[in-house]
Each structure stands twice: as structure tokens, then as C-alpha cells.
Amino acid sequence: MTQISVPVVRNILQANERLAAANRKRLEDAGIYAVNLMSSPGAGKTSLLERTIEHLGGRIRMAVIEGDLQTSQDAERIQSKGVQAVQINTDGGCHLDGNMVQIAMDSLDLGHLDLLIIENVGNLVCPAEFNLGEHDKIVILSVTEGDDKPSKYPVMFQQSSVLLINKIDLLPYIDCDVEKIRRDASRLNARLEIFAVSCRTGEGLEAWFSWLEKNVQEHKK
Amino acid sequence: MHELSIAQSLLDIVLEESERHRLKKICLIRLQVGEMAAVVPEALNFCFETLSESTVAKGAALEIETLPVVARCSECRLSFQVENQSFLCPECGYPALEMVSGRELSIVSIEGETGDRDDSDQCSSGSQHPSSE
Each residue of B24-45: b (16+ CB within 10 Å) or e? Predict the structure, then answer.
């Protein structure tokens, strides 16, 4: 019996990274732009999707993958807007991974799509660690959650391309310093595009729609 | 609790490597985890212990080296350790767009027992097997 040390040097999440890369290739081949939409529960992911579909649905062919712990309520909300939606129930799992998205993509008609939006499980920590094959990560932070969130959950803000500060129509009623959110998030990630919006009133959403549409056009074949 | 998924991936790799190197028992697994990898070592330990229960990795210790977040300034190219979550260059004040380290989640090495005799726990550092009295 000998005791030996074996050098390994492998990324622990390599299996997920491989699946994410395969998903990405399928998307690229089909000319589809994909985003991974992340936030805490209740920050407004599904509301943002509804507004986005209402505004861009006529011009952009889109589909939604809905990640949820339980229920298909969100997928039904999306389908009622006339958009393909696939539900993934993670049954308690706190994030989506490359494998779940691969399976969900199998049931979408990729040949007739320009945009795939993957709505992750509501959670400001775990989803940031798992690539799904998306081109960009989008994080939503609602002002009711507090202006300390970028510094408390830095990974999510560091990894994202866009931060949507949602529910700004509620600012008169709460103590939330939007400038602090902008400052802290920008210090973590100078590339981060920040849009202050209200999905309820529609304020500020034009800038988000334009950003999204520009990226969809750039990835089209 | 995404540590459960991470622990499962870790165990998959460890078992694959132990088979390749014909290890009969795994004593120690060395890991590098970046400060910005969003992993809680205690949770990873707990999940790994539970998942590895009936495998050759049962009782293996996880030795986790934490790597600091290091960024490189896009203007003056200085590499610096990120403190207080600020990616602004301490020299010129420009934002650093490149992360050099801090997102690692890697296995570095595995220590274990080889050999043909099938004795149990021989690891010199590691599992405490309760002696049957």
C-alpha cells in the first residue's frame, strides 16, 4: 500500500461548462441571441418579460425558458402573450444549469427564433455560478430590495452585462439611494450597462428595448 | 445551496481520477477556490461528506486554498488585488476590465492509497475510523 499524490488540475464545473459551450454553439449556428435573466424572487423578471414581449414581439421572434422551483404560472403568463415558453421545474434546485437548458432547447423551434430569454430561478447568489450558454447575463434589482445589494452580492453584478434597477415608481415611498446602487455596481463592473426602469409604468424601458434589439440584430445570421 | 451541485461535480471528477490512478482510498483533495466564486467552504464540505459516503472518497479531507481577487487595469496594465469590491486601479483610477484571478473553482491534486491489499483506512492524515470495542 503506497500513498501517492495525483496532480489533477481540473475545473470542478467543467461538465457544466461543456454543456454551456454546446448550447452556445447551437444558438450561434441558428443566429439566436440569448440572455440569462437573474434576480431575487419578486424583483420583476416575469413583468420585464411581459413588457419586452409586448414591445418587441412584433419585430423579433422570441422564446422563453422559464426556470422555477414549482408551478408553471410564469410560463403560462408568457404563453398568454403568444410566445413559445418552456417550463423547467427545478423541484427545489436553486439555479438552472447547462443540462436543464439543453433539454429545454430541444423542445423549441430554433430554426425560427431571433432571441432566447432564459429566466433563471429567483436567487441572487447561485445562478451566477453556472453558465448556460447565454451571450449575456442580465440582473434585475428592484429598489425595494435595498441599495446595499451590489456590495452584498458582488458576483452577480460582476458577471452581468446589464443591470436593470426596477420599480423606480416606488422611490417616493422608500429609502433607496439609486445613485449608490449605480456607484457600487460600476465599481465592481465598469462594463455594466445600467437602466433605471419601472415595469409597471413603463418608465425607462425604451433604453432596455433598444439595447436588446441592437444585440439581437448583431447576432442574426 | 448550489454547493450540492458543485460537490457532485467534484465527486464525479475525483472518482474518475481515482479509477484512472487505481486509488483504493482517497485521503485528501486539494482545491483552489477564488474569493469571487460564491462558494461557502463549510457548505461544500458538508455536501461532499454526504455525497461521498459510500465511495472510495469517504472521509477524504478537502483542503481549500482561497485565491484573492486580482484584476488588471485596462489603462496602465497594473495587476492589483481588489479590495472593498473596487475594481478601480489604485495607481491611475481607471476601471479594470480584466479579472486575473478570483473566480477559480478547481481541483489541484488528490492524495490517496494504491496497492493490491484491500486493507481499510490507511490514510495518515484524514479519516478517524472508530475502533470497534
Answer: bbbbbbbbbbbbbbbbeeeebe
**Is the CB of B85 less than 8 angstroms away from the CB of A151?**
yes
With CB atoms and an 8 Å threshold, state whether A2 touches B124.
no
The residue to which cell 441558428 is assigned:
A30
pLDDT tens for each residue of A10-49? 999 999 999 999 999 999 999 999 999 999 999 999 999 9
ipTM of the complex: 0.79
CATH of segment(s) B3-113 = 3.30.2320.80
Sign of CA dihedral A129, A132, A133, A134: negative
What pTM, to 2 d.p., does this model score?
Answer: 0.87
Query: By the CB < 8 Å criterion, does A203 face chain B?
Result: no
How far apart CA A4 and CA B13 sit, in angstroms, is: 17
pLDDT at residue B126 tops 70? no
A171 is written with which cell numbers? 422611490
- By the 8 A CB rule, do B7 and B49 touch? no
* Domains recognised in chain A with CATH numbers: 14-219 (3.40.50.300)
Distance CA B76, CA A216 (A): 34
Closest CA to A116 of A36, A43, A14: A36
Residue B116, pLDDT score: 59
Average pLDDT over residues B95-115: 91
**Best to test chain B binding among A4, A10, A12, A188 (most B CBs inside 10 Å):** A12
Q: Which of B21, B36, B88 sits opposite A6 (nearest CB)?
A: B21
